[in-house]
Amino acid sequence: MVASEFVSELRQRYGIEFRNLALLDEAFTHSSYVNEHKELGLKDNERLEFLGDAVLELTVSDYLYRKFPDLPEGQLTRMRAATVQTRAFSAFSKEAHFDQYIKLGKGEENAGARQRKTLLEDLFEAFNGALYLDQGREANIKFAEQIIFPKIDAGQFSAAMDHKTALQEFVQQDGEVEISYHLLSESGPAHDRQFQVDVTVDDQVLGTGFGKNKKAAEQAAANDALLKLKA
Amino acid sequence: MVASEFVSELRQRYGIEFRNLALLDEAFTHSSYVNEHKELGLKDNERLEFLGDAVLELTVSDYLYRKFPDLPEGQLTRMRAATVQTRAFSAFSKEAHFDQYIKLGKGEENAGARQRKTLLEDLFEAFNGALYLDQGREANIKFAEQIIFPKIDAGQFSAAMDHKTALQEFVQQDGEVEISYHLLSESGPAHDRQFQVDVTVDDQVLGTGFGKNKKAAEQAAANDALLKLKA
């Protein structure tokens, strides 16, 4: 069963008290642990992760919808994508000390899986799935008020509304690179100019875009590059 | 405002009675209508679509999680993806007669947008977003019990659990084609054989896959082909 110090920590830090501790235990059981202890017939946390993913998607969507009453759908969608993603969820998992309590197989432990971002993301989702089953969606909202919403309020994901910033963050994950934008053409009559821009990363063309002004064309080029990089 | 016959129809067919009719009206207002009537300062349904998308994701995930207690996460995810997608949502929109009541601009009307699957999908999401804001998530679940869950129960999306069926459905959207699987190699010791298979569609190789038996390798090849086709 899950460590009693973790049960205390959840109560003290977040006011969360599970009724069904088996659900909490399932959320903190990695498939590698199940595989190494087949004789125990345990359940891994993957089904809870499936459910928690959808719970978090709605929790964040609802919050963004109400917090930004004037933001168009496209920007809400980008903000949501930036919030509901590996880097953010893995950081939340660490903030809540979830990484200290997941049960891993020895092979995965030795391979450093405890600090692997996708594992920590899955764990955050599984925890939220378990919380939802145990106590209903209000409990997920209360937890998000402590761990997710303050980051949204602080603007941590606002860069997502801007493709150029997003491209910069994406390509610089692997170290410093040089990004630059070049005007390729300007065409059309004065009242309906069309600008074409490309974007290079370390001198390699990664995307092109059109727009009614240079700034809009740069944003389109950055978005094009991001879509290609993430494909 | 939204047609009174539609308000009656929602009450009679689905037992749904909106408190705030402005929300229902917003859900049925396409951006093309807003653009053609700028003087009215209307809101289009895109923000509600953003919210409804997440509401439906959780509604379906929760149902699948409970209905299939023994299904592993991968198959749940495929079932969810098959349920929460354009073809399914646009059919639900038509079943509920939503297509008859959306307000479109004249240009889009003439272009046949009223029967466009992506528009009907967005409309289904926007309606669910409005219902959620008006009455809370229980109302979405009740509506889904009438319009979504019976199709899940009838196995309409179960093919998604199987990559070969999914590939067949995907490539045959554009007419009849011939799909075949070929064993390329068998290797490894008897207790740990590895099979490699490719899949061709009209004699063109579209994917390859490995597995511990021929069947598993075929599923992997079909999945590989699907990922490439959808990229």
Would you write up a description of this structure?
Two copies of one chain form a homodimer. Chain A has 231 residues and is mostly helical. Chain A folds into two domains: 4-157, Ribonuclease III domain (Ribonuclease iii, N-terminal Endonuclease Domain, Chain A, Orthogonal Bundle), CATH 1.10.1520; 163-230, Double Stranded RNA Binding Domain (2-Layer Sandwich), CATH 3.30.160. The first copy, chain A, is built from twelve helices and three strands; from the N terminus they run αααααααααααβββα. The first copy, chain A, has helices at 4-14, 21-27, 31-36, 46-67, 73-83, 86-95, 106-110, 117-135, 137-147, 149-153, 163-171, 214-230; strands at 179-187, 194-201, 204-211. Chain A has a three-stranded antiparallel sheet, with helices on one face. In chain A, β2 and β3 (204-211) form a beta hairpin. In chain A, α4 (46-67) crosses α9 (137-147). The longest helix of chain A has 22 residues, at 46-67.
Coarse morphology of chain A? elongated
Topology-level CATH name of the largest domain in chain A: Ribonuclease iii, N-terminal Endonuclease Domain, Chain A
Compressed to H and E, one letter per element, the order of chain A equals: HHHHHHHHHHHEEEH
Strand proportion of chain A, as a percent range, falls in: 5-15%
Q: In the CATH classification, which architecture of the largest domain in chain A applies?
A: Orthogonal Bundle
* Overall number of structural domains of chain A: 2
The CATH first-level class of the largest domain in chain A comes to Mainly Alpha
* pLDDT < 50 stretches of chain A: none
Strand order of the largest sheet of chain A: 1-2-3
